[in-house]
Design goal:
Its EC number is 2.4.1.-. By secondary structure, the chain is of the alpha/beta class. It is built from ten helices and 22 strands. The protein folds into two domains: 6-158, no CATH class; 163-410, Alpha-Beta Complex (Spore Coat Polysaccharide Biosynthesis Protein SpsA, Chain A), CATH 3.90.550. The chain is globular. Bound molecules: 2-acetamido-2-deoxy-beta-D-glucopyranose (NAG) (5 copies).
């Protein structure tokens, strides 16, 4: 009896411990999928061509995981636990040698449908399908079989990052008009140690595009296409909404997580064009390197301060940047991370790391701030307060001069005058979506296109397909 009771306690304790570990582990990759794979060996069913799904063109073999994982990024309707992708991994780049896998998926932000209200009514949710690879499995490309149809993906390899520096990822830029933000952003981030910028581009004004091209030609930013999404295969197209009309903000969650893989520097971050992370003292790169190297710290989180600049940078006078006025303090933190270990990013905090169950124990609060120079900072009357945070770790006047010279170069000395017309039109469109938030997905690029085309001659990305559907 005693031993039974003992066993019972042991089982109970194990169960609690298991639940705890399971729950804590939940944000991490491998474990859940392995369980999923085991449970579904018998009952699973392959996703076929009647299922609405589109694939990012590349699959990744992520060697930051041990063992390496094959990771596939998709946008699709919610998938049942028993559903998997039936894939052939071509080991020689041809079909002579291939291994067949059932690959299970998870929504990138953890839930499907999303629990984030503005995204919860979107049909298409960003997913990652992934599986760990055996040592002899080094696929060159992957064929996904969807019944009689298929999709071919090329494969890119990802390793731990060794080049010292910071890479800044930008979520898809769409209907963007505030080119002045970009000038301040690049100048400030560079002063903080950023060496590369990866910009996913959908649409912007001619001035925005010119500004991006200028920095691209200097070798600073890499512009990556983020076009409108493709139509579904013709035999199911009329059964579902168009992808463009039912995906939350251009699937920025997917762009952000693909960007992390493209980072080649030791440190990375995801920040919008009106956000710069700064430490209280010194340069961000030095601060972050010191805090993270040879420690358990995988990410450093910065509190958000909205601020105003006088004169406003939209007058193309950047002198206000030297003495920002701090306004509301917001909860939406942003973070920098060790790019060798971050597995999945959320917008405001890391979701999981490649080598750790407990992502929250690896995030540290920064001695610094997120400087958020939003066009419309907050609501109501904002008190201005003094804070020790500045855009530049050194003499700001040099940077102010640089920004003004840069603006002159970009526009050949003829400064475009700023108009808030485009900005206002987008706000108006978004606000129309919000009041019916439980019924309409905030799918800005699709829903707002017609109205945005009325106010501006946009430069759209027009690249060949980046997202693939079954054929
Ligand atoms: C495709 O999958 C659906 C759902 O799993 C299933 O009902 C249907 O029979 C399948 N179609 C074919 C042709 O296998
Ligand atoms: C496929 O790849 C293998 C190994 O590289 C090679 O020997 C074979 O000739 C290739 N087959 C075709 C049809 O290209
Ligand atoms: C794999 O990719 C290579 C290069 O794009 C291509 O030539 C080859 O046909 C592909 N093989 C398969 C089986 O898709
Ligand atoms: C990033 O993590 C790797 C692996 O844990 C570690 O070796 C490296 O020192 C870290 N780098 C930085 C800059 O934090
Ligand atoms: C920018 O604004 C400041 C402060 O209002 C003013 O002193 C300065 O002359 C302006 N610079 C230019 C180039 O207009």
């Amino acid at each position: 009896m005693k031993t039974i009771q003992h066993d019972y306690k042991f089982v109970l304790l194990s169960l609690i411990l298991f639940t705890f570990i399971f729950y804590s582990y939940e944000p991490d990759f491998g474990f859940l999928e392995t369980i999923g794979e085991v449970l579904n060996i018998v009952a699973g069913e392959p996703i076929n061509a009647s299922f609405p799904i589109t694939f990012y063109q590349s699959a990744y073999v992520d060697h930051r995981f041990d063992p390496p994982r094959l990771r596939i990024f998709t946008l699709n309707k919610c998938v049942k636990n028993s559903q998997f992708l039936l894939a052939d991994l071509h080991l020689n780049g041809n079909s002579s040698e291939s291994v067949r896998k059932n690959i299970y998926g998870k929504p990138l932000d953890g839930r499907c449908p999303s629990i984030y209200i503005p995204a919860s009514s979107c049909l298409y949710v960003p997913y990652t399908f992934s599986i760990s690879l055996k040592p002899n499995e080094d696929p060159k490309n992957v064929t996904i079989h969807l019944g009689s149809r298929k999709v071919e993906l090329n494969v890119e390899k990802i390793y731990k990052k060794t080049t010292k520096g910071i890479t800044v990822c930008l979520q898809p830029v769409y209907y963007y008009s505030q080119w002045q933000n970009i000038v301040l952003y690049i100048e400030a981030w560079r002063a903080q140690g950023a060496t590369r910028f990866i910009v996913y581009y959908h649409s912007g004004t001619k001035e925005t595009w010119k500004t991006l091209e200028y920095y691209r030609d200097l070798g600073l930013i890499e512009i990556k296409s983020w076009p409108s999404f493709p139509s579904l295969p013709v035999d199911i197209a009329d059964k579902y909404p168009r992808i463009d009309d039912s995906v939350f903000i251009l699937s920025y969650f997917m762009a952000m997580n693909i960007c992390i893989l493209d980072i080649k520097t030791t440190i990375g971050t995801v920040a919008d064009f009106d956000e710069v992370l700064v430490p209280t003292n010194g340069r961000l790169l030095d601060y972050a390197t010191k805090e993270m190297t040879d420690t358990k710290v995988g990410a450093i989180s910065f509190e958000n301060y909205y601020l105003s600049l006088t004169p406003t940078i939209y007058t193309s006078n950047f002198s206000g940047v030297a003495s920002p006025k701090f306004q509301t303090y917001g909860k939406q933190t942003k973070y920098i991370f060790n790019a060798s270990v971050l597995a999945i990013a959320q917008v405001h905090w890391p979701h999981s790391f490649v080598d750790s169950f407990f992502s929250w124990t690896r995030t540290k609060k920064a001695n610094g701030a997120l400087l958020h120079f939003r066009y419309e900072p907050g609501v109501g009357n904002l008190a201005n307060t003094e804070k020790p945070f500045r855009f530049f770790p050194d003499d700001p006047s040099v940077h102010i001069k640089n920004m003004e010279n840069t603006a002159h170069k970009i526009f050949n000395g003829v400064m475009p005058t700023f108009s808030s017309k485009a900005y206002d039109a987008l706000q108006e469109c978004v606000n129309k979506i919000i009041p019916v938030e439980d019924k309409v997905c905030r799918s800005t690029s699709g829903i707002c296109r017609e109205e945005m085309d009325k106010v501006e001659d946009w430069v759209y990305d027009k690249s060949e397909p980046i997202f693939l559907v079954a054929s």
